[in-house]
Amino acid sequence: MNRRLVPFLNWVNLSTPCGLAVAALSGCRITRGPHGTLLAEGYRRRLPRARAFTVGSVVLVRGSVPQGAHAGFDTLLEHEARHCRQYAACLGLPFLPAYLLAAGYSLLRTGDPASRNPFERGAGLADGGYREQPARPVAGAVRAALTTRRRRRPEDTAS
Predict the structure, then answer these.
(1) Residue 158 sits in which domain range?
(2) φ, ψ of residue 40 in degrees (nearest 5)
(3) Which of 56, 114, 142, 151 has a Cα-to-Cα distance from 83 of 20 to 30 A?
(4) 156 and 124 in a common domain
């Protein structure tokens, strides 16, 4: 998809204005980034825990973007630019529930929200700083999820 078309589509589908709202509510400083992105530096909220994440064509970054050549960060920004194209392909905000569903499936299958998430795989796992985890058998994954859920539930106590 054309690098000029993606930012336009993400404005029209309202995902970029939503990203700018998240950035403003988080006190981020906005600058122009590579690949038609807008960089929102200084994101400090607890979730998501990622070093950077994207809403529309806005890449929200914890801390600041290093000046000059920084190979690892440039690769991360390329990864996030691929997510911008995914937002455009999903017609904007429908990307969010689709991504959450994919992350849930990946978490169930591997214990990791990225390894089997087609959006993260399409954006490049390694470029996003992820390591691929092996898939678990479905029965084992369901058992592990249920066991974790039971452990988190407070025990009933008799008074």
Answers:
(1) 94-159
(2) -110, 100
(3) 142
(4) yes
